[in-house]
Amino acid sequence: xxxxxxxxTAYLPPVEYFSLISRAEEVLIEREENYLKQSFxxxxxxxxxxxxxxxxxxxxxxxxxKTQLKDIRIDYSKRWQQVHLGAMTxxxxxxxxxxxxxxxxxxxxxxxxxxxxxxxxxLTQTILNMLKMKIRLRFTSQFESPAESENDFRYRIxxxxxxxxRVKEYLQVFNNGDGFIxxxxxxxxxxxxGPEAVEFL
Length: 201
Known about the structure:
Layout: E1 4-7, H1 15-22, E2 26-29, E3 43-48, E4 51-56, E5 59-60, E6 73-74, H2 80-92, H3 98-110, H4 116-130, E7 137-139, H5 186-193
Parallel strand pairs: 1-2, 2-7
Antiparallel strand pairs: 3-4, 5-6
Helix pairs in contact: 2-3, 3-4
């Protein structure tokens, strides 16, 4: 895919998100939209011994019905950092490349980043560095309504619906004979395949 793509911000996004980025010449991240609940903007799925596990970053939504995404603040009254890092360790410490990549992710999550979009952007850039993908991330300056454009993916990648995207299968640590699990965070791919991860995008 050549040219520019428009995507939402996302917390440790699914493999599909990075597959799209890897094929783009320019990546524009939406920051002017109203915050969308129950989306990948503040959540991801990892693979635990009991199957897919949801990790969600708690946020303050304020008293307003609609809050712009760029103003969404992270709620640190909950111990979400410890929960997420503990869950990742429990799920992936036995994976081949966990020890090589976890520390960089841990450093970002352990910070007291104020805004969700800043946390997501730093994590996304960290993942791009791991994948050795030199792609510049830019942000929207105004909101445009969803278009029928083939390059607008802001609302197409969602935990609520199947996108039809299928990852090239790789060995997953907690695959209990139920078949390959799709829709997981990029960290599942990286911890399991390491330097070869980019070949699965």
